[in-house]
Fold this sequence. Notes:
Layout: H1 4-16, H2 25-33, H3 35-51, H4 60-80, H5 90-109, E1 116-119, E2 131-134, H6 142-159, H7 166-189, H8 194-211, H9 218-231, H10 234-240, H11 243-246
Amino acid sequence: MHHCEEFRERITEHIIDREDLAGYSESQRELLICQSCADFYAESKDLIEAMSTVEFGVSEEQRCAMDHRLRMSLMPVSAQRSGWNFRMSMPAIAGAAALLLLTIGIYQLTPPSPVGALYERPGRSQTAPTVEAASDRVLLDPVTVDFLEQSELLLRSVMKLEPADTEDVADAKKIAVEQLMGIDQRKQAAADAPPVVNVMEKYETVLRDIRNLNGETMAEDISDLQTRIEKNGLIANMKAFQPGVVLVNFTR
Length: 252
């Protein structure tokens, strides 16, 4: 049976690595039976081409700040509960820490693009972002990249959320409130990357609904949230906007 969200997550790494799915018969079969996923694949390929020209400028001070924020956000919650649920287990923290170190290494080793890029200007009838050569580079600051990473983690947690998980629901609502307080600033910071802003705007509506979860319609609201997250491919998009992160594959 075809599951859009699972399939999109499976092919995301291939898309980011710019691998042609023509050599994967199972993936080709699923693309043929689901037009929505076929559109997602085509648009994501164009998106990765666009994002490959984005320079992530990270100074030594900013790298240290990113490391500190990740450690502070992960360590306290893992110490309070065991097992895998909304909060990350110790193995997950170890993996995240290793991922952070490898990500920093990629930032340091990847040379800046010789030519920057501008996304297609509003008013032009294009369904996927296109790239034009420009003298100015489009930058995503480290705080915005960190925000996207935390957003991906929250979305993954919501996809596993159950109405009976009262503590997890409370955690999700708390994080949603915190992210809503900063999302306008993140959209302003990413103003030169319209695809990022577009995803953030869709994500903002999800955050508002997470914040408003209540006991009377909890089951229905959670189910609706999960459907919207899957339909809009939010997890895969949040992941795609972190090229320095997702290029690291611990399974190889």
